[in-house]
Amino acid sequence: MYFNQQWAAEHRPAADTRLIKDIKKAINAEYSTIACYDKLAGNAPTQQEKDRILEIQKDEKRHLKEFSSIYEALTGSKPSYKITETCPDRIIRLTRILDISG
């Protein structure tokens, strides 16, 4: 049986289209959060705090993998990843302040 992804995408019910958009948004939010945790871990004042941040990041990576699998199951293609949210500078500055005062 031949499956035409373009035709399927054009004739997908509106609810499915909305769901796919929402999942894509969640994928990019998780991807952005993972990047933020990288920055935070790089500025962690102690190894213990860095380890905690990286442990939290593992959950975000798991979420990203799960959302990506759902997206692929619905669309038949792998998602592209894009940072859509930046890590707030105030959080980075806070980790630096904690390092100075700690």
From TrEMBL:
<protein>
    <recommendedName>
        <fullName>Rubrerythrin diiron-binding domain-containing protein</fullName>
    </recommendedName>
</protein>
<dbReference type="InterPro" id="IPR009078">
    <property type="entry name" value="Ferritin-like_SF"/>
</dbReference>
<dbReference type="InterPro" id="IPR012347">
    <property type="entry name" value="Ferritin-like"/>
</dbReference>
